[in-house]
Amino acid sequence: RVRMAIIILNVASVLAGSVPEIREAVGQDAFARFERGCVVLFSVDYLLKLYSAPVVADYGFRRSGYAQGFFGIVDLIMLLPYWSHFALGLCGVNYGLMLVRSLQCMRVLQLEEYVQAFTLLDDAWCNCKDTVKTSALIAFMIWLFGAVLFFELERGNEAIEGALDSIPSAMHFTAIFLGGEWAVVDFTPLGKVLCVLYCLLGIAVFAIPVGSFFEAFEAAITGDDE
Q: Does 22 share its domain with 40?
């Protein structure tokens, strides 16, 4: 119950810290100190779980069972950005900490131990993680190669005001394209052909990881019902 309270308070502090009036009234330092304390506690919790995994049946008596499981990955995602920010700060590199704090909202997934329904997420991940990893790699390749092709075909196209004149910019727009939205439409003839191929192949393949997860999630629900 203490851990549950800390998780809820941590998420609440992130939400409250984004409100200027509350941030000014309480003080930014107070939010920062509370966040540091939570990160230290959750870091210790992560290391203890990793250390004890070989004697825990839920993790298959393997450290990799926890580290590669859904909630092990969630725990790590919650910690890495903060410690990366801390390490880069020691090297004189600073970037907005609010983005790091915003990721802490995902800590609600760590309520799995207290909300039984959340265990379905872990079951779904275990059932489909190989498919998701493979299809995610294919999706990334489609995203990257598509961005390169759009860059080669559309750079210098004044009708789209330089939107695809660099590969990073093209990756930004192709990510939007793969979501089914078209932020720019005035393509060259070859660009239009590429758009058709993206609609027929790219978007469908890009959706496989999400579809696989929800299919596994449905199977987990059905299994529980039975």
A: yes
Angstrom distance (rounded) from CA 126 to CA 24? 44
Question: Contacts by 91-97 with C-beta closer than 8 Å and gap 24+?
Answer: 97/32
- CA angle 9/118/121 to nearest 5° reads 125
For residues 66 and 56, is the Cβ–Cβ distance under 8 A?
A: yes
Last residue of a domain, one of 110, 130, 160: 110
Q: Please identify, among 71, 88, 110, the residue that sits at the C-terminal boundary of a domain.
A: 110
* Domain interval for residue 90: 1-110
- Binned at pLDDT 50, 70 and 90, residue 31 comes out as confident
Q: What is the pLDDT of residues 150-186, one digit of tens each?
A: 888 888 888 888 888 888 888 888 888 887 777 787 8
pLDDT in tens, 61-117: 888 888 888 778 878 888 888 888 788 878 877 665 655 666 666 666 666 555 555
CA atoms within 13 A on the CB side of 55: 3
Residue 44's pLDDT band, with cuts at 50, 70 and 90, is: very high
